[in-house]
Amino acid sequence: MTxxxxxAIIRLxxxxxxTVFKILENKLISEGTSVITRLKAAAVNSPLKLLQTxxxxxxxxxxxxxxxxxxxxxxxHDENLFRGAWLVSKYGxxxxxxxxxxxxxxxxxxxxxxxxxxxxxxxxQIKFINHIFYxxxxxxxxxxxxxxxxxxxxxxxxxxxxxxxxxxxxIVYMLLAQYCQIPIYGVNLPKxxxxxxxxxxxxxxxxxxxxxxxxxxxxxxxxIFFLKQQNISPQSQFFNQCSNSVIIxxxxxxxxxxxxxxxxxxxxxxxxxxxxVFKNGLSAKIEWE
Length: 289
Prior knowledge:
By secondary structure, the chain is an alpha+beta fold. Helices cover 56% and strands 8% of the residues. α2 packs parallel to α4 (49-77), α3 (36-45) runs antiparallel to α4 and α11 runs antiparallel to α12.
């Protein structure tokens, strides 16, 4: 679509005939993100409320489609954890660029790359990472009153404000550890997502860390005790390393739960549609958050 064609369509967006509008809307949505800048400029420069409202709706739908396609491609071809978390962040921060967010993380991670961690035992490595993450970088867990704020599920927010929920804090903690070549990976534990120190020799979970609780170290017996408290039968997935696909699903579940608690059905449905990208999904019998 040429700029002149796009401008002509934009001028017709306030047509009172809804049939005409739907044709124009579908055409613009099919063009994808390339038309967003011009649409936003038209909304800013127009005094017409109907035009502004319709443009806002079209832009939002284009952005939703873009995230959906991005997650589909990610699931099928990539599964880089940082990129997956960035895609989820785009729901709340549509304009956040991948490279810009990478730069934010790189600046944070540079604080941790000051030691040769392979000189330390696994527990000593965690002790030093905890010191850097919580004391030096000052990452904190969100308070109970703010637990269901949607922002807590966006890694862009967590990196900027140094605060998050169990899954977003765990993702940043994990990425920081992996940046330092410490083998920390996610564990799909219900209610409270945690991470494990995984043996490079046999992929066995040596011990567990709860990033939401100041990096507290846990053993298998404590995980079993926690599951019994929740009336959940132990499963191997609650003790072993999980895929990045599962982590991003958990992040989306957390976001969906936030909108559910806030009684925002449109947002809840939109996040649910993003979860449908993952056809296998998580176990329906488990309450994850």
